[in-house]
Every structure is written in structure tokens, then in C-alpha cells.
Design brief:
The protein is mostly helical. The chain is about 40% helix and about 10% strand. Helix 1 crosses helix 4.
Length: about 120
């Protein structure tokens, strides 16, 4: 196995993460940086994927439940050839493929008659 090859890819992914987060002017790169090695192994060694055929039948799918580490997945996809690395520099920019609108959940206080404590309940 050529570990040097994967180390180089993971290093490029880390550099892409730092550049994109810095250019965005916001974000916490730590979660993405710490996941670079495992994501590199998955995208470049383990997963059955093809950038030339992204909807390939039987392809593997990766779900990142660590949402604040999204840049590591974006960087891995760019390095793998799904789009250009330069596209990542639009991270968190309006109109970018990497722009996500967050909505805040609003809560109101209400008295709970059973125990007279205050509880939060969602409202539309």
C-alpha cells in the first residue's frame, strides 16, 4: 500500500479546508481537519464511487452526521474530481453550492400545570 499517496491527499484536503474556511470568514475548521484522514481513506480507497458517473447504480453513499465538519466532505469531493477545488472557495457565500441557510427554532415559555415548572415548547 502506498500510504504516502493517501497522506498527500489528506494534506491537500486539510489545506483546502483552511483556505475555504478562511476565505469564508467564518467557521471552525477543527472538526473537518480531524476527519481528513478517515475521509481520505473512505473516498480514495474504500468507497465504490465514480466522479464521472455520480449517480452510478450500486455506488456507495457517505452520510456525514457531523454537520459542522462539512468542509472535509466538500474538500474530499473536490480532490476526488466531482468539481474543482476552486469551487470550494465559495463556501458560505450566497448562491454557492455550499451555502446553507440555517433556521432558528423559536421557543416560548409556558407553565406546566402538573408541577408548576417552566418548560419550553416549540411554536411555528
Amino acid at each position: 500500500m502506498d500510504f504516502k499517496k493517501y497522506e498527500d491527499i489528506a494534506s491537500r484536503i486539510r489545506i483546502d479546508i483552511i483556505k475555504a474556511v478562511h476565505k469564508a470568514g467564518s467557521g471552525h475548521p477543527g472538526g473537518s481537519l480531524s476527519a481528513a484522514d478517515i475521509v481520505t481513506a473512505l473516498y480514495f480507497k474504500v468507497m465504490n464511487i465514480d466522479p464521472a458517473n455520480p449517480r452510478m447504480e450500486g455506488r456507495d453513499k457517505f452520510i456525514l452526521s457531523k454537520g459542522h465538519a462539512g468542509p472535509v466532505q466538500y474538500a474530499a469531493l473536490a480532490e476526488r474530481g466531482y468539481y474543482g477545488v476552486e469551487d470550494m472557495m465559495s463556501l458560505r457565500k450566497l448562491g454557492s453550492r455550499f451555502f446553507v441557510i440555517r433556521t432558528e427554532t423559536k421557543f416560548r415559555e409556558s407553565k406546566c400545570p402538573q408541577d408548576r415548572s417552566v418548560r419550553a415548547s416549540r411554536f411555528p
